[in-house]
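A note from the maintainers: we've had questions about how concatenated examples are separated. There is no special marker in the raw files; a new sequence line simply starts the next protein. For clarity in this README we add a label.
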Amino acid sequence: MREGTELQAFSRFVGALHEVRRGMDGPALLDWAAGELSGIVGFDAAWLGWADTVPPEVDIIGTTMHNLPADYVAFWSEIRNDDLLAADVQSMKSTGRFWAQYDRDGPRQSDGMIALADRYGLRKLSVVTRALDPLRPQLFLSAYRGGTGARSLVQRELQFLSCALDHMQSVLDQEGARDGSFRLLVDARGRPVAGNAAALTLWSGWQAEPKRREPAESFDDFLETRGFNVLASPTALNDGHQLTELRLMPRRVVDRFTAREREIAELIAEGFTHKEIARGLGLAPATVRNQTARIYEKAGVSSRAALTRAILTDQASLQG
């Protein structure tokens, strides 16, 4: 990236980021971003994903790699206690910085860092992350340059990557779909790494629930009691990690009914009387009245008008 071109490059990156997000889940977006940023900033390899940086140990949540061998994450796990960059990241809250660097030719060394750098031919290593969020794992990018004459990333390049991570997290946290659903990206332990405000609020509410009940209520059960269906799309990542994109869909009123009750409820909403419904469906008027009472109970309403409003609201949400 030539000096003085940062603003134009960043504008193009953000525009492309919003465009590709429409057709990509969270893990796929990481893959795209790693390659895109490598081409813009100029680095040979990258490690991008989420990590829990709260001491005593950095815990990798889910990552993607760019131009790195498949065993990279496993090897890093063996030397993680010697990782000088990980230690720097953990101290960022006190220093106020959002990046750290390691130079294989510099004076600050550890056995683990030397082994990592030499094994994969890395000379200049930089890690950039976002402001520390104590409630969830942090998005990070480790950018590597190798070969004789490699130079460290300079401040303007590090700032570019830091701002890029902010926008990536923002896009991943974007509002739900037009059908009223919310999206939440979680790790294998159910911790959210991305999600819109409504989805994160639901997750926080579940976390705040008393855990004294036996068995403890699962997040799926918690959502079901609050009127949500969940569609899960898991994606396997490096070294056995997994991220799952949850689509939280508010249940419609008619979803609570049997097939016959739904049929009757929709006819009521269209303005038909009990006698007209009974005649049209070949039922006794008393049967229709009894089923209407069950429909009111399931929908939490007490009148035809209230039931009609609830069904029309469902239909409007589906039409976006």
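[label: protein 2]
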Amino acid sequence: MLTRAARTGAPDPWAALPSELAPILRPEMSSLATQILTEIQLRIPEYARPMDQKYVHAIRRGVEEALGQFVDQIADPTAPQERCAEVHRALGKAEMHEGRSLDSLQAAYRLGARLAWRRTARIGERARIAPRTMLLLGEAIYAHIDELAARSVEGFAEAQARAAGTRARRRRRLLELLLTDPQPPRRILAEAAEAAHWTLPRTLVVAALERVDGQEQRSNPLSRREALLDLESGHPHLLVPCPDDDADDEPPWEQQLAGWRVALGPRVELHRAPHALRWARKLLELSHAGLVPERPVLRCEDHLSHLLLLSDENLTRQVVHTRLAPLGGLKPKQQVRLADTLLAWLQTRGGAPEVAHRLRVHPQTVRYRLHQLEDLFGDALTDPQARFELEIALRAAGRLLSYGALVPEPAGTGRSST
């Protein structure tokens, strides 16, 4: 395996050191390791507290491997380094799992380097090692420590990435469970939430998303609110827990989700999350069809009647065809005029003047149209259930397509049954 100097192209202190130094230094390494470990625990606050014995052993092994590898490289600059490097990667990983930064471990490396140099200097004085050789020895000590510190940084970064990846995968799985219809039992949700380090809320908001520009969104723009996101699937969506203490604390959707069109479901309890997502996705569909405005942020609560009437388009069309069949024998313009008049009459529950005022036509025109409607619809105009379904059909017809396109043609001109 190449030495560090050969890999980086830097001058190689190891090659210039006489291999005869190794047997002079090796006998001192065991006591030096004990001294370094003791000083680390005395001088670095994070390591001064009582520590887990397994972790103490890991640090001791790291010190011993560092010193052993140092002497081995003096004896043979091409000596394998991977075992020592892996030990120090593991120390970096352990720091991350302990919840610490690398500051304490880096301080430990610096302290170890100073102590190693002091001990080596005393050994060199006793053995009357040439000053130039001592300078090279000091350079080698600090080069070795730099290498090991770099390995610990690698381990720390690897552990961070793995933890983030594991957490992301668990949260993605939790999001899938929460939005599965029907939801799994509460016990399973609780276990998945605990594994993902996420607290199950009492209420939440679900949103369906649609990208409106080409920018990639890799981070979680609502991470502060513990949002769960899926931005990579064919139908991106998110779930945001609602704080129990502030019902009005709403994210700035347009700012946080710039580059996306957002359809927000209503605030619902946890078990209704799948329904809220279905409504939000339907609202996006309605906006594509031009039935609701295409705004950056759409709210289901602003379009409940649309969602109710158009949630099952085939069924809605059937209601329209069935209830408005008496209009089928008329020309399209006549269908529209009579449908508008009938809807205004059902909504006002008044006479010709009230309907005329709403439609901005002459009352006599309304009376004429009402007579036509009585001939076409007959008893349906006095039956409460039929009147209710007629109003639904008329509202839906106006929102889906033109009346003429919805009413079957020909449909006959006889009176409809109630």
